[in-house]
Structures are given as structure tokens and as C-alpha cells.
């Protein structure tokens, strides 16, 4: 906007003079410094300036007539002149609108609070987010930081464009070899953050922020291609939207955040003011087209499901998964019908009113679907189905827009929006939704499909889908996510490999990848000039039948004319993989001998639990959704969604591992003990301290030993969050202060990736010493078939100094409670929950003043005796005591499908229910040193009566009696050989090669002989022959008055395997003769020749007892 010289400056803060003493009514020329020789009076220069301004204005108007003259000179009609004039006026109008919008936005940002206070009568849409929403905070401190950093960001952008972008543009095309940035200025108006919203209750490993950003900048970027005298650029820009920032994963080391992810949940609004040749983009028609193309480019980079990932730590694991995580779920959208639409078609200049030709656009993020057009209908029936991936809950919205199809511009009939969180909460929504901005309603059925890693559900899903009528595409049964990581040793590009019409020399390829499933093909980016490319991209496919479909992978040069390698992978292979995941190298065919491709493929079954279909009303009852109903919103699932039938934990629930840490021994530790004032050098009394995942462990002290052997096992629950380390420190135990003997660290990702680590680690910060650790990752398995074998293996590898080993991992997801009792009958409590298993407990957060709290918290517990332990849950009110309790025996999980219970549980108080998911995973060790067996034992002699072991193996040595009875219910099975006249003893013999120990477990006896009136008080004595000294003698505890005692005690002898095989084990069952006598009554004995015993299996067997004179050897 021009201003005449006589006008005063505008009162806008941007245009105020810098000197406050200047008169506001003085023309701009008066601000020039007066000539000293002229007495301070402006003379000639002002008159010359006015004359120049008049000549310039006249010249501009004269230039407007040049196109008219040229049109007449070449003989063009007046129509061309009028068309050009209309084009210019349209361009001018678009430019003026953009400049006016920029000025208004800048004025708002310059004094936001003052304008907001003056214009509180504005519509809700115009108010900033911190005024409209109470949970959005105004972060002015953050804007001050951005304003301070803005000039330095401008310098960085100038350097980036000049040194990185410009050379890339020049090298991309020969015609752009003179391309340069002539001006790069971000301006003085920084980006502003209008409001910040922090989402509580999300995953514990992440921090989730929503930033309401507004950029109304005076940015100026000019480019030039000197060869063609072409100049273009941008002068001013507006960008408004909600940017979601996710800080994950949180790690236990600086900087505490592994990476930052940024993306727009919905498309931001964009307005660009062009200069130079790009002024043509402001022509009506081209303006909206150019903005749409730029927004498409931004959406492909920063709008869900695309994310900008900035790693903050080196060697970050699963970068592709952080950039493109698994979807939270799938929503199947049934676009059924609409009714009561407005009529938009008019005939005879509006005298005759027609109907409409409606169609619908269904959108979620960047996923858009268009229905077919129904001609001449105000109550259309579409009956179409679409499937969309949901990545963020809350935040994403399903949007349906209805239009009337016209030859020129389609008329808008209305829209509806629905947050996907409501679909997740209700599982199924079937309702008529009113259209905003128009009239009428649209009928949608929305189904939330959970992602399962259970291949057994696939057949049920396929059978269900066969009965579903879906168009234009059949319903999907699964999704496939392909994480394309990298390739190695791709073939070099030679002229012989190209078709004859393409002449290429020998060079490194520019590889890209095409992935296809049936007729759906997706392409990766091209990586230039390398035969070992790294892509780190993710691709997603819907699968109709994974049993018959294949993934076709083609690695090509960027010209698409040359194939560098190929791979065809039947998806049925994933159905047999653990957790439906393949994470490995794949050999390429039609490629080099060492050419291979690394990919991670994750399949998930799309499952709609029929029990989750909770309709808001019963069909046929009052309030059901009848087309002719007067109140179509009665019983709407949107306003009052039904109670969920199952929990909805995030994708990280149940993904924990258990790390088993075996501290074996150390060597060459330094001596710290001194005697007689340091004249006599002693040794050390070492012990080990371990720190991991916020927990600490400590071994026992070994006295006076520089080469100690601890042989202790510790277990800790860990996640796959990168950056974690196992910290190990060795100390010398003293009376005052313990002396430091060294430390070492082990990166947790090393163990989680390999599954097992057995190493001697050099101790740091000391002259000498090393420590022997054995680390194993135990991944929970959702099957009870291996539980008894796990219990048996744990009993064999159990060390005397360690706590009882865990056999399972219990994961609890505590979602919510309902109908809790009121405090004093009228007031809502402030409830929290405590979860307890054994001596471990977890307390949830407290939810203020509600009888229906939502916690959304998870906890994990190590389980040692799954048959007898139970989960104890208490719901308590802050200051009010117990509101209800629940006891869940874990034995119920052992018989549940997938060892999982996911439902509502009634509290013992009789009032109130809790919705939780209890999931058990069996911890199977792959590196225990115990050979696997399948219940097939060899009978060695008639004196050996073997138990068929229907329950899978011996119980744990420290198990309680009820659990042992439960697991030994088949002891007296009629299928077994009958016991001898003196009874039987049950033993397990095994040689633990890793510890160089002979292990014997005495489980119990049965059918012992009763010589007197009262039953005996039996115990078992073991002697390793030929030695008869105390060093080889072991004995169990004594059981009172029983003929079938249960001991379950473990004994060890340290000796080499070859020596053990030369020994005999003498087993005697004895009883005290009387209280006052030291005599022992022999109830029976058996002598086992270890050379004839298989010590590798560790199988429990029954042995017949004999008289002392008989001593039979089995």
C-alpha cells in the first residue's frame, strides 16, 4: 500500500519512528539530516524527489499500454487484450488478499493479548488455543527462546541452502548449472508457539506434546538461473497447524531422550507470497494448485503417517520403527448411506429446483477415499467399505465430507468429524451423524480392529471375512509392515547389463526398491552412487489372505531399466515365525553372489472380537436408529459410548524381557587388606554390586580370595529402550569403608540382540582383575506346554547362593474401574490401586474425585511358582481405606487361551468392577546346559521303575507342598510299575558341565515300610562311593510320621565328569529309632552306578529300595 509524501506515518507498532521526539505529522522527507550550509531548511532534494516519483508513476502507467500496442501491431483481436487484462486483475486480487492476510496475521501476533482482550466477541474459531482450551498452556517463555535463536537459525539456513541444496540442484539437471540463491533471509518475525498441550497417561517410555504453531514471517528467499535470466522467490509466508512432538525412547543416560519425532496430525494451512517468475503462481487457478502441490510435498514428509525423526544418541536401535511405528489399530469404515441432504441442482435459472448428485470423501490423515456418485438422490445408499490405519490416539480424526457432483465446481453439502479415540473406546459405532455446514445426516458403521500376533486367529478372521459384503475392495485379514533397512554388495552397473538402447559406463548403482503385493506397489527412495545402500524406510500393506499372497521385492537402478536383484517371499512363511516377525538378511536372486537385503517384516492379524460389538441400543426398541425416527441422536454412541469389553493397551505392553545375570567368578583381583600397619599384605574379601533398570543387586562376600567364585544368579525385568547399561562394581568388604576393586559395563542392547553373552570382562580403573559374567535374555512365551520343563531346568541349574529362579513373567495392564462405592454415601473417592505378587507390589497413580477412574498403567512381576502364586489387587481411596479387592490365582491364567485374561473383574466388596488384562509368559532358557527331552526314558533294569512324567518333570526344589501335590498328581498312576516291598525313592541325577558339578535332587519317597505301630520319621542319606568321609556325605531334612515324604532338596558335588562316572551313589532311606537313641533304622537303600546312568538328561526317576544285604544296583 502506497502512502503520499504528505501523510504521517501509520500508528502501527511496526511503522512507528525510532525517535520518540519526532513530530508525528511531519513528512518522511523531514527526517533527513539538514544541510548545515542551508540553515536546516530542506530545499532542492525534496522537490527533485517529488518530480522523480511523478515520472516513475507516469512511466508505470505508460508500460500498461505496451501490451495493447503489441496486440494491435501483430493483428490480435480485442479478446486477447481483454483476456490478458482479466488475468492481470485476478492476479492482482490474489496478491492483495495475500498481503492483507499477512498484515492482519502479523498485527495479531505483535500484540496477541491486547487484541484478544478487545475482541473476545470473536468466534471460537478465531481465539488462540490457550483461550479456547483450558488444558492448552500458553508458553511465552518458549517463544522468547525461539526469538533469541531465530537469527542464528537464519544463518544456518543460509549456509545449508548455499552449501548443500544449491549444489544438489545444479547437479540434478544440466539446465540448472547456474542456479544460485541470491538472497536468504528468514526475516525478523520468528515462528510463534500459540499453545502447548501435554498428553498425560500415555506410554511411560515417551513424552507427547502438541504445539499449536503459527508462522507469519517476512521470509525472503530469492533464486536465480543466470543462464536464462530467470529470477524467482518467496516473500512472506503463513503456516498454521498443530505439530505433535514425541520424545522417545526415554533412556537411563544423558541426554535422557533417544530421539525426537515431529509430525502434523492434520494438514497445516499454508499461504505463500511469490516474487519474480513465480508471481505466475498467484494467477487464479494456479494459486490453489501450487499451494496444493506444496502441501502434498509437506504431507509426504511431515503429516502422518510420515514423521521427521532426529536421533539424539548414537547407535539408536530400530530407527525405522521409531520413524514408522506399528499402527495402533485399523478402523474399518462402512459408509452406508445419507439422508435429508440439501438440494443443490437448479434448472431454468433457479426456477426449477432439482436434487443433488452426492458423493462422499472419507479422510483420515493422508488416507483419502472417494465414494461413487449417486445421481439425482437426496437419500443416497452407498454401501462402501474402507480401511484406514490409525497411528495416533488421541489426535487423529475421521472426516467425511459430502459434495454434489457438478460439471464445473462441486457443491459442498456438509461434513462430520469424529475422534478415533471414541471408536477405540466403543470398539463398534453404528450411528447417524449430523452434517455440519449443511443439512442432513450420514450413516457410518465404524469397527476397531486390533492387531494380534496370534496366527491361530487367522482362520477365524478369514471365515468371518467371507461373510462380509465389502466394496470396492474385499475386507483385509492382516497387515504387513516392511522395514527396509539396507543392502550389501549389489552388482556394479556395467554397460553389458543395460539394454542396447541405453548406453551406460561402469559405475556404482543408484539403487531403489520396489515392493509389490498383488497389484499394490510401493517404492523406496533412491540412494545414489553406492552398492551398499541404506534406506531405513517402512512400507505398509493390507493383506486379504496371507496364506496365499507373496511379497515381491525388486532392487533396481533409479532409471528402473536395470534390475539389481529380486526376491519373492511367500507370506505364509511369516505365519510360522515367532510373533509373526522375520528380522534377517535375505539373499537376492539374479544378482551378485554376495548380494543380500536386510529387512524386518511384521505381520499382524486384524481381529474384531465379537464380544466387543456393543450396540448402543437394541434394534426394534424405542430409541433404535430408525430412518423415520424423530430423534436420530437418541442412544448415540458418540455422546455416550458403551462400556468397553476389553482393555486397549499400547503396543509396548507385554514386550518386556527378563535378563538372567549369572555372576560366576573373578580372577587377579587386587589385594586391599593390610595387617600390622601395612607391613603384612593380605588378600581381599570381594563381593559384586550390579545396577540395571533402576534396581541394584549384591552378591555374597567371599573371604580371603583374589580369585573368588560366587556362582550367583540375579534376574531383572528389562525393556528394549536403547542406551541402558548393566553397571558392575567389585568391592572388598571391610569393617569401615569397602575398598574399590574395579568396575565394568555391558550395553544392554548387545545382550538383547544376541540373546546370550558369556564373557570375561576386564575391570576398569584398577591395575588388574577380570570378571566372568553370563547374561541371557529370556523372552516370555504365551504357552504353558513348556512350564514343567522350565521348572525342571530351574531346579537343576539353581545355585545354592541365589534366590529361586523365575519360571514366568506376569504382565498386568490396569485400565479402569467403575461403580466404586461413594465416600460417606455421597462423595466420590480419589481411588488408586495396588497390585501385589509375593513380595513385589506396584501402586498406580491416584485419580481425583471419581468412582470410575481410568489409570492406563502397566506393571510386571517375576513368577517363580505359577501353580500356587496369585495376584492380589486392592482398590483404595486416598484417605478412605479399601474400596474393594480381588485375588486372581495364576493357575487360572495357565488354562486360559494364550495365558491371558482380559475382562471385567468384580471386586470382593460386591460393589465395583475393574477392567484389567493379566498376561503370563513362560521363561524358557535356551542356554541352561540341560538337554531337552520328550518324556522318552530308557528302562535300565527291573529294579528301576520309571514314572511317565505326565506333568512334564520334577517340581522346583523349594516349592511348597500344595504346589508339589498338584504337579505330582500322577505319582500313583495305575500305568506305573508297582512299588517294591520296601517302597521307592525318587531322584534326579544330572551333571552340570558348566559348573563342573554332579547334581542330585531328592524329590521324595513312597510306600515305605512301617515296622512298628507308628509311621517312621524318614530322611535320605547320600554317599558318593568309594569315599565314605563327611566331604561326600549329604542328607535331607527329616519328615515326621509319614510313609510318603516329600523332600525336594538339592545336593552338589564338585568333581570332573570323568571322575563322576567312576563313582557310585549310595542312597539310604533311614528313620530315627527313638527320641533318646542315636541309632538309625534303615528303611531301604539303593546303589547307583553313575557309569551306567545318563547324566545329561536330568530326568526324575523312581528307584526300588532294597535291604542292606541286597544293595541292588540299578
Structural class by helix and strand composition: alpha+beta
Mean pLDDT: 77
What global shape is seen?
elongated
Rg, Cα atoms, Å: 40 Å
Give a count of the beta strands, DSSP E runs of length 2 or more. 53
Q: Supply the number of helical segments.
A: 15
Pfam families: C2, SMP_LBD
Region (Disordered): 1-48, 627-651, 934-960
Membrane topology: Peripheral membrane protein; Multi-pass membrane protein
Biased composition (Low complexity): 935-956
Question: What is the topological layout?
Answer:
Elements: H1 44-73, H2 78-110, H3 112-118, H4 129-132, H5 140-172, E1 179-185, E2 192-198, E3 207-225, E4 230-247, E5 259-264, E6 269-276, H6 286-302, E7 308-311, H7 319-323, E8 329-339, E9 346-347, E10 352-353, E11 358-364, E12 367-370, E13 381-390, E14 397-404, E15 411-419, H8 420-426, E16 428-434, E17 441-452, H9 458-466, E18 478-488, E19 511-517, E20 520-523, E21 534-543, E22 550-557, E23 563-570, H10 572-575, E24 581-587, E25 596-607, E26 657-667, E27 674-675, E28 680-681, E29 686-692, E30 695-698, E31 709-718, E32 725-732, E33 739-747, H11 748-754, E34 756-762, E35 770-778, E36 780-781, H12 787-797, E37 808-818, E38 831-837, E39 840-843, E40 854-863, E41 870-877, E42 881-889, H13 891-894, E43 900-906, E44 913-923, E45 944-945, H14 961-967, E46 984-992, E47 997-1006, E48 1018-1025, E49 1033-1035, E50 1046-1054, H15 1057-1060, E51 1064-1072, E52 1080-1089, E53 1100-1104
Antiparallel strand pairs: 1-3, 2-3, 3-4, 4-5, 4-6, 5-7, 8-13, 8-17, 9-10, 11-12, 11-14, 14-15, 16-17, 17-25, 18-21, 18-25, 19-20, 19-22, 22-23, 24-25, 26-31, 26-35, 27-28, 29-30, 29-32, 32-33, 34-35, 36-44, 37-40, 37-44, 38-39, 38-41, 41-42, 43-44, 45-53, 46-47, 46-53, 47-50, 48-49, 48-51, ...
Amino acid at each position: 500500500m502506497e502512502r503520499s509524501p504528505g501523510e504521517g506515518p501509520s500508528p502501527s507498532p511496526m511503522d512507528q519512528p525510532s525517535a520518540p521526539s519526532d513530530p508525528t505529522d511531519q513528512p518522511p522527507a523531514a527526517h533527513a539530516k539538514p544541510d548545515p550550509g542551508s540553515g536546516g531548511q530542506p530545499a532542492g532534494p525534496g522537490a527533485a524527489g517529488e518530480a522523480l516519483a511523478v515520472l516513475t508513476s507516469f512511466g508505470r502507467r505508460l508500460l500498461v499500454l505496451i501490451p495493447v500496442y503489441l496486440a494491435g501491431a501483430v493483428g490480435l483481436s480485442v479478446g486477447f487484450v481483454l483476456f490478458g487484462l482479466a488475468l492481470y486483475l485476478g492476479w492482482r486480487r490474489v496478491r492483495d488478499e495475500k498481503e492483507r492476510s499477512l498484515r492482519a496475521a502479523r498485527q495479531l501476533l505483535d500484540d496477541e493479548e491486547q487484541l484478544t482482550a478487545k475482541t473476545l466477541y470473536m468466534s471460537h474459531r478465531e481465539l488462540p488455543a490457550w483461550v479456547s482450551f483450558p488444558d492448552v498452556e500458553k508458553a511465552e517463555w518458549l517463544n522468547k527462546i525461539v526469538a533469541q535463536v531465530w537469527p542464528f537459525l537464519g544463518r544456518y539456513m543460509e549456509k545449508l541452502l548455499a552449501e548443500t541444496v544449491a549444489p544438489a540442484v545444479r547437479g540434478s539437471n544440466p539446465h540448472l548449472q547456474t542456479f544460485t540463491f541470491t538472497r536468504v533471509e528468514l526475516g525478523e518475525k520468528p515462528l510463534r508457539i500459540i499453545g502447548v498441550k501435554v498428553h498425560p497417561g500415555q506410554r511411560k517410555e515417551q513424552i507427547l506434546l502438541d504445539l499449536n504453531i503459527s508462522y507469519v514471517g517476512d521470509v525472503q528467499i530469492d533464486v536465480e538461473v543466470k543462464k536464462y535470466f530467470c529470477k524467482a522467490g518467496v516473500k512472506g509466508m503463513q503456516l498454521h497447524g498443530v505439530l505433535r512432538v514425541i520424545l522417545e525412547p526415554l533412556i537411563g543416560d544423558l541426554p535422557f531422550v533417544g530421539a525426537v519425532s515431529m509430525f502434523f496430525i492434520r494438514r497445516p494451512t499454508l499461504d505463500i507470497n511469490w516474487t519474480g517468475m513465480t508471481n505466475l503462481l498467484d494467477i487464479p487457478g494456479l494459486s490453489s494448485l501450487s499451494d496444493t502441490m506444496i502441501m502434498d510435498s509437506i504431507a509426504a514428509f511431515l503429516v502422518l503417517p510420515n514423521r521427521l525423526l532426529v536421533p539424539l544418541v548414537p547407535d539408536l536401535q530400530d530407527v525405522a520403527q521409531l520413524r514408522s511405528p506399528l499402527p495402533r489399530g485399523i478402523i474399518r469404515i462402512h459408509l452406508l448411506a445419507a439422508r435429508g441432504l440439501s438440494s443443490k441442482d437448479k434448472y431454468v435459472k433457479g426456477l426449477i429446483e432439482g436434487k443433488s448428485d452426492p458423493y462422499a470423501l472419507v479422510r483420515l490423515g493422508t488416507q483419502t477415499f472417494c465414494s461413487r456418485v449417486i445421481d439425482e438422490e437426496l437419500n443416497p445408499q452407498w454401501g462402501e467399505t474402507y480401511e484406514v490405519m490409525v497411528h495416533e490416539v488421541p489426535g487423529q480424526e475421521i472426516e467425511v465430507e459430502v459434495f454434489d457432483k457438478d460439471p464445473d465446481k462441486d457443491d459442498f453439502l456438509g461434513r462430520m468429524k469424529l475422534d478415533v479415540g471414541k471408536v477405540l473406546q466403543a470398539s463398534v459405532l453404528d450411528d447417524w451423524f449430523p452434517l455440519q455446514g449443511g443439512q442432513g445426516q450420514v450413516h457410518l458403521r465404524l469397527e476397531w480392529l486390533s492387531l494380534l500376533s496370534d496366527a491361530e486367529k487367522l482362520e477365524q478372521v478369514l471365515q468371518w471375512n467371507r461373510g462380509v459384503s465389502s466394496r470396492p475392495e474385499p475386507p483385509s485379514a492382516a497387515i504387513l509392515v516392511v522395514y527396509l533397512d539396507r543392502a550389501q554388495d549389489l552388482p556394479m552397473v556395467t554397460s553389458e547389463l543395460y539394454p542396447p538402447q541405453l548406453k551406460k559406463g561402469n559405475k556404482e548403482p543408484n539403487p531403489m526398491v520396489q515392493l509389490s503385493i498383488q497389484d499394490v506397489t510401493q517404492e523406496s527412495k533412491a540412494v545414489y552412487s553406492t552398492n551398499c545402500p541404506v534406506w531405513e524406510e517402512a512400507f505398509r500393506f493390507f493383506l486379504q489372505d496371507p496364506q496365499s499372497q507373496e511379497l515381491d521385492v525388486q532392487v533396481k537402478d533409479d532409471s528402473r531399466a536395470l534390475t539389481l536383484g529380486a526376491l519373492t517371499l511367500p507370506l505364509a512363511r511369516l505365519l510360522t515365525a515367532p510373533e509373526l516377525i522375520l528380522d534377517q538378511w535375505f539373499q537376492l536372486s539374479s544378482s551378485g553372489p554376495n548380494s543380500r537385503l536386510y529387512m524386518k517384516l511384521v505381520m499382524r492379524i486384524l481381529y474384531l472380537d465379537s464380544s466387543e460389538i456393543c450396540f448402543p441400543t437394541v434394534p426394534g426398541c424405542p430409541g433404535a436408529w430408525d430412518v423415520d425416527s424423530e430423534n436420530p441422536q437418541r442412544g448415540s454412541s458418540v455422546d455416550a459410548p458403551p462400556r468397553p469389553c476389553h482393555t486397549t493397551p499400547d503396543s509396548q505392553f507385554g514386550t518386556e524381557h527378563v535378563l538372567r545375570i549369572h555372576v560366576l567368578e573373578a580372577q587377579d583381583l587386587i589385594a586391599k587388606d593390610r595387617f600390622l600397619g601395612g607391613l603384612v599384605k593380605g588378600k581381599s574379601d570381594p563381593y559384586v554390586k550390579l545396577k540395571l533398570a533402576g534396581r541394584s543387586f549384591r552378591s555374597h562376600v567371599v573371604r580371603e580370595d583374589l580369585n573368588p567364585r560366587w556362582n550367583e544368579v540375579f534376574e531383572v525385568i528389562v525393556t528394549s529402550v536403547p542406551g541402558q547399561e548393566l553397571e558392575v562394581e567389585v568391592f572388598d568388604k571391610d569393617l569401615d569403608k569397602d575398598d574399590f576393586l574395579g568396575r565394568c559395563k555391558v550395553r544392554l542392547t548387545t545382550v538383547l540382540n544376541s540373546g546370550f553373552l558369556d564373557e570375561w570382562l576386564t575391570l576398569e580403573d584398577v591395575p588388574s582383575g577380570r570378571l566372568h559374567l553370563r547374561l541371557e535374555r529370556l523372552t516370555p512365551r504365551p504357552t504353558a506346554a513348556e512350564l514343567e520343563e522350565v521348572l525342571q531346568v530351574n531346579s537343576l541349574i539353581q545355585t545354592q547362593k541365589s534366590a529361586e529362579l523365575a519360571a514366568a513373567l506376569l504382565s498386568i495392564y490396569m485400565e479402569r474401574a467403575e461403580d466404586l462405592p461413594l465416600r460417606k454415601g455421597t462423595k466420590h473417592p480419589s481411588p488408586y490401586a495396588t497390585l501385589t505378587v509375593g513380595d513385589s507390589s506396584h501402586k498406580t497413580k491416584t485419580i481425583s474425585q471419581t468412582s470410575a477412574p481410568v489409570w492406563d498403567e502397566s506393571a510386571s512381576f517375576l513368577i517363580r511358582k505359577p501353580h500356587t502364586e496369585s495376584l492380589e489387587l486392592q482398590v483404595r481411596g486416598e484417605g478412605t481405606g479399601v474400596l474393594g479387592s480381588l485375588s486372581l490365582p495364576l493357575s487360572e491364567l495357565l488354562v486360559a487361551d494364550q495365558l491371558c485374561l482380559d475382562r471385567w473383574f468384580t471386586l470382593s466388596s460386591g460393589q465395583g468392577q475393574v477392567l484389567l488384562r493379566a498376561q503370563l509368559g513362560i521363561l524358557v532358557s535356551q542356554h541352561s546346559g540341560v538337554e531337552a527331552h520328550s518324556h522318552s526314558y530308557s528302562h535300565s533294569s527291573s529294579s528301576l521303575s520309571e514314572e511317565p512324567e505326565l506333568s512334564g518333570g520334577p517340581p522346583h526344589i523349594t516349592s511348597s507342598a500344595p504346589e508339589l501335590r498338584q504337579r505330582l498328581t500322577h505319582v500313583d498312576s495305575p500305568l506305573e510299575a508297582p512299588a517294591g516291598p520296601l517302597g521307592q525313592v525318587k531322584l534326579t541325577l544330572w551333571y552340570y558341565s558348566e559348573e563342573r558339578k554332579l547334581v542330585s535332587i531328592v524329590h521324595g519317597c513312597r510306600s515305605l515300610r512301617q515296622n512298628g505301630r507308628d509311621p517312621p520319621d524318614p530322611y535320605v542319606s547320600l554317599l558318593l562311593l568309594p569315599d565314605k568321609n563327611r566331604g561326600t556325605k549329604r542328607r535331607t531334612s527329616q519328615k515326621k510320621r509319614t510313609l510318603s515324604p516329600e523332600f525336594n532338596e538339592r545336593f552338589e558335588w564338585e568333581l570332573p565328569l570323568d571322575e563322576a562316572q567312576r563313582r557310585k551313589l549310595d542312597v539310604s532311606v533311614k528313620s530315627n529309632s527313638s527320641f533318646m537313641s542315636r541309632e538309625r533304622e534303615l528303611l531301604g537303600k539303593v546303589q547307583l552306578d553313575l557309569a551306567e546312568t545318563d547324566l545329561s538328561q536330568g530326568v526324575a526317576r523312581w528307584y526300588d529300595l532294597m535291604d542292606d544285604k541286597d544293595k541292588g544296583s540299578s
